Structures are given as structure tokens and as C-alpha cells.
What does this fold into?
Amino acid sequence: MVLKFLRRSIIVVKQRKPLRILFADDELSIQELMRIELPRLGHEVTICPDGRTAVVALDQSSFDCIVVDLDMPGISGLDVIAKMRQSAPETEAVIITGKSSIESAVTAMRHGVCDYLTKPCRLADIQAVLERVRQRRELSKRLRALEGRIRRAEGVTSLVGSSAGLEQVRRAIARVAPTDSAVLIRGETGTGKEVVARLVHESSSRANKMLVAINCGAMPEQLVESELFGHRKGAFTGAEEHRAGLFEMADGGTIFLDEIGELPKSLQPRLLRVLENGEIRRVGENQSITVDVRVICATHRPLEEMVESGSFREDLFFRINTFEIPIPSLRDRPEDIPLLVDHFVRRNRQGIPPHAVVTVTQCMEVLTGHRWPGNVRELANVVEHALVLSDELPLQIKDLPERYGVRMMSKQVSRPNRPLTLREIENRAILEGLDRNGGNKVKTAEDLGISLKTLYNKLHQATEEPLDRTA
It folds into this structure.
């Protein structure tokens, strides 16, 4: 009777990609039906009469999906799934049973079952379930491919440098990453706070989950709450659908709140609530949602002073500052600049031999002598600019942005304890003119009584001249 019912319900569709299916059921009529019909749908099927045979088949072959009866003599369907999870955790599992109950459905879902069918069921139902399995596996493959492309594009997350200050940062990351403690990363703009946050996440037990980053100062205040906590449809003008917030997206993983000092004070109590009990509430809803999220914050602002002035909550400050990681500025670790330059050059140009020199000595002296108010981010931009202008390596002073080349001129004309050369006097006059006119070259050329072209030529000549090491 079951066999006839199933046959009348068949729907033949073109299968885009066959699945390798293990089907286990102790009813002979269903075994025979699946042996005939699943290949007709384009799938490869292995039929097993009981759980023990299914376990043996799992040891011998790999499958895209297993469809197992919940109640089989000897080894149950859930036992088969548990065995499968040990050797092939990515294989999808479907339960089919004639004893449907809420309890059995809940138990099946807890075992990671992706779908649940009750007998008697139509072949069309099984076919629809298998199509959903195929779509899930196809989506999973696309996601893995996308993740691989992102990793290749971003490269390996790492801190470049060997200075004592950077070693302290590495030790701090190693200590705090295995915990779930809140982390506060402090440092000037451009020092690499997000890189440190990524390293904490990637070194933690949450590394396989999402790291969601948001800059609290980069969006309008009225949108921050919706972005962080989500909203329900109609909660405000423009809320045309339900939307999950970033905390929901990061559930099980990590959320990185950059520039936490910019978080509006009205939202600080809600963030404190998340840190204390893991509860969030979408805008426009009364029901709270529990999330499991590690919070990493970063700031360049003096939060202690903000607490004193009343613009930042003291209790929130103590909550986010469970473990602090200070990042030194680039001017405090100039010995790392050559390593960073080499890293940025190789990141932007592929195929450079491992021991190739990427800059001439004079160029590196200019870079290491700069104060770098924009820190590592500024250095990365300067190297990228130089690579755009240079046809080949090593980089020259003339490849640097002009303001850095002008500093090279300043070094050349600042030689004590000897008379200046005519060229140095000329360069000093040019520098003083540029300073006097705020860098305006047209006005400087007029003041010096030379053409603009002559001024550019002299600037170019000055940046190509080697440093006099006898000074």
C-alpha cells in the first residue's frame, strides 16, 4: 500500500547535480522503491536494510546525504547519524519515521538533522527534501570558495615588526585570545587596531565563526542602534522589513566595535546589557534575544577623561576594559619601518624574489626619519604611491610623494660645521620660499624670480642627489 502511494506521487524533474545518497530503512517495500526511483531522479543510492549495515557503508564510502529511518532494530537512525558526524561532519542527514512526535523531531534537530519526514510520505516530499539538500551543499561550497578568495585577497593576518613594543602586543594577544574576556585595544589612528582584533579572534575558539566589525563613529547616530541590534518592520520610517542586527550576525563569534568612544551615550546602557547578560532587543520589539558574542573594542580617545566629563559611562568603561592591549605608535618603533616597507611592497607586487632589495638606502633613510603621524596606515599609502610611480625596484626618493622628497632636501642643506655649497644655498632658498608660501609653488617661483618649470627641475634634482655621509 505504501509502495503504490509513493509511486503515484512521483514528480520527474531535471536534476542539476546528482547526490550520493545512503538510504537506510527496515521496510522492504520502501527499500525497493528507493532502489528504483532515486536513480531515476539522477542520484546515486546505496540501500541499507538496517542501522548496522548503514554504519558499515559509512566506513567504506562517502555520501552527500543520508536518509535514515528513526526506528530500526539494533542501531537506530540517530545512532547512525552520530557515527556519521564523527567521520563526515559535512554530510547532510534526513530522518524518516512512522512514529512522528514533537519529542522525536526536537531530538533529531539536536543531532544536526537538516530535515524530517513522516510516513507515509510521498516521493515528491523526498524529492523536495533532496533538492533542498543539494542547494544547501551548493551554497556551502560557494561560501567556502568565497572565504578562500577573501583570505587570499586579504593575506594572512599578522603583525609586521620585531620591536619590543610589538612583541608585548603579541604576548598580550596570546594571553587573552583563548578566553572570552572583553578586550579594549588602545592606540593612535592607523596603528593597526583592527589587525590586532582579527588576531585575537583568529587565535580564539571562535575562529570558525564570524568576526563582525563596525566603526561606531562612521555612521549617523540614528542608524547605530538599528545596525547593532536590528529592527522589526515598521519600527521607523524606511524599516520596510525585519532585519537582524550585527550582534545577531555575530552570534557564536566576535563583534569588533571600533572607535567605541564615539558610541552615543543613549546606546551605552544597551551595550552594557549585552556585556552583562548577552541580551539584545531589536528596535520596535519588546522581546529580548540572547546572543553569545565576544566583544572587542578599540579607541584612540582618552576614555578615562570622557568618564570624568560624563560623556562615557564608567560602568561600561570597566566592562569593556577587562583586558587592555595598547599598541605603540610607529614613531616609537622606527626599527620596524624597513620590515613594514618590505611587507607593503611585496603585498602590492607579486613575484619579488625573497632577498630582493625593495628600496635604495637614501629612500629608506627618508622613510625611517619621518614622524609618521598617520602611523602604519600612512606608511602603507606612501609605499603604494611610490609603487604607482616606479617602473622597477628598488624604490627611489623620486618615487615618494613630493612632501617627503622636500624633507630630503632639508636634510641635505642642514649640514653644520662647514660652509654651504652654492647648490645647498639654492635649495635652502627654495625650502624657505615653500615654507613662507605654504607650499604654493607658483608663488614661490615668483618670489625667487624663476620659472615654475625651473623650480620643479630643481626639486627633482635635489631628491635624486645622494646624501653626503661626511657631514
